[in-house]
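JOB MANIFEST
job_type = single_chain_structure
chain_count = 1
residues = 184
[input]
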Amino acid sequence: MAEAAAQIRVPVERIAPDTIRLERLLDAPVETVWRYLTEAELRQRWFMGGTDATGIGEFDLVVDHDKLSDDENVPYPESYAAFKGAVWTEKVSRFEAPRLLETTFQGGKNGTVTYELFDQGEKTRLVLTHSGITSGTGAQDFGTGWNSHLTVLEERLAGRGVRNFWALHAQSREAVVKALGAEG
């Protein structure tokens, strides 16, 4: 598998005080991207595992970012280590396979995430909107996280690897600060 040639670009924008939006063009058909959103075994390769999202109702997300790096023993940054192994029970409020998925985030404590998929021939345009962000870390931290995770998804779907997720995350943080401004 080729190594990620990913350059952190920031297709992230704040569209309301508590809402960010990201967009990616992914090298896979809509049905494949849908599986990466809803099937835990595939979702853990770019975001978090847990249980499958199979329709309206609950599913679990398990924080285990060790699965995101191809290199062995990539340590968690100290500021994120406390989250390792956390389980968040999420609720699916909209499930329109394979085009629209809307779920709570962090057990509903930090709003909702909407994933919209648009067929672009052999590719898929993914639009992710995270609204209702209440965390004190605001759009900047969530923008960094989503930008990093979507970059991993993009790389995996293109058949490339990600050696060190946390190095990618650090690059993403710098880019998001520039895109959204220091106030986050």
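[summary]
The radius of gyration is 15 Å.
Residues 63 and 85 are 5 Å apart (CA to CA).
exit_status = 0
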